[in-house]
Write a structure and sequence with these properties.
This protein is α/β, with parallel strands linked by helices and 260 residues long. The protein has 9 helices and 7 strands, in the order βαβαβαβαβαβααβαα. Bound molecules: NADP nicotinamide-adenine-dinucleotide phosphate.
Length: 260
């Protein structure tokens, strides 16, 4: 056991569980957050038994306006010294912008953008003061283009990458880093939650384990961006995308996010 605790949001989901296992397997403590108490308690029991580390859990809806403050306060009162902040919780939502409800969109913005930003804002000063700490913000390859039929989700992830990259630059020369992880489609709960299961975009979804490893290792090395989880033909597509006409790319994305 040691005090290199990783705070992992969305720890009960596909990618989050992998981060939790990776960190605990190295003998480190974890502080796990998601909405669902039962899922957190089950993961806590599993990790404690397997790795003999301390597993703190907090069930909280991260779309709440004061969620980040409550998380930070909990860490303070429980004396959890967070060394790694893995902002992983997030969700998408398929549908035309004009058809999706205000509630759906505001909740997505709250989790993917507002709470993520507030958690960085709350923990980063402590990291700088202490002179150590790393942050991994889970973005998406969706950050690289506008995404018709998931307009809001793509915009939230563009924000996450942009914010992470700018702070990465601001903290150069310190022992701190902020890495953006941009996965492609993965076989997690995301497709079902976001209504994306029956789309061409998820036809070649990959398991989250290797993506988590790439992101985790990238965070440890202080990398700027990590793109992971792409199939062999998606990699050159991603390289070419900035060179392709934007209208063509958006039409392609729209087709790939339509129901088959
Ligand atoms: N899967 C993909 O294809 C893909 C691709 C690129 C990027 N990503 C990103 O990867 C990250 C992890 O997603 P995933 O694929 O692992 O999806 P997932 O299996 O659906 O897991 C999502 C996790 O986030 C938690 N969460 C969602 N809303 C929450 C809220 N309001 N409050 C607290 N916790 C909440 C969930 O907990 P509860 O179940 O308790 O709500 C769950 O633990 C997300 O940021 C996602 O945008 C995913």
């Amino acid at each position: 056991m040691n005090n290199k605790t990783a705070l992992i949001t969305g720890a009960t989901g596909g990618l989050g569980r992998e981060f939790a296992h990776l960190h605990a397997a190295k003998g480190n403590d974890v502080f796990l957050i998601s909405k669902t108490q039962t899922a957190l308690a089950a993961l806590q029991a599993e990790l404690t038994a397997t790795y003999q580390v301390s597993v703190h859990i907090l069930a909280i809806d991260l779309s709440q306006v004061d969620a980040a403050e409550k998380v930070y306060e909990y860490a303070q009162t429980q004396n959890i010294e967070v060394e790694y902040l893995i902002n992983n919780a997030g969700f998408g939502g398929r549908g035309e912008f004009a058809q999706r409800t205000m509630e759906q969109d505001v909740s997505m913005l709250a989790v993917n953008v507002v709470t993520l930003t507030k958690l960085v804002k709350l923990f980063l000063p402590d990291f700088l003061h202490r002179g150590s700490g790393r942050i991994l913000n889970v973005s998406s390859t969706a950050a690289l283009t506008p995404g018709p039929l998931q307009a809001e989700y793509y915009a939230t992830k563009a924000y996450v990458t942009s914010l992470s990259n700018a702070i990465w630059q601001e903290v150069q020369g310190t022992n701190i880093s902020v890495t953006a992880l941009m996965p492609g489609a993965m076989t997690t709960g995301f497709a079902a939650t976001s209504g994306m299961g029956d789309t061409a975009l998820f036809a070649n979804a990959v398991p989250p384990k290797a993506v988590a490893e790439a992101g985790y290792n990238g965070m440890m090395k202080g990398k700027l961006n990590v793109i992971a989880g792409l199939t062999f033909w998606q990699k050159p597509m991603m390289m070419l995308m900035p060179l392709m006409p934007k209208k063509m790319v958006m039409k392609l994305i729209q087709q790939m996010q339509s129901i088959k």
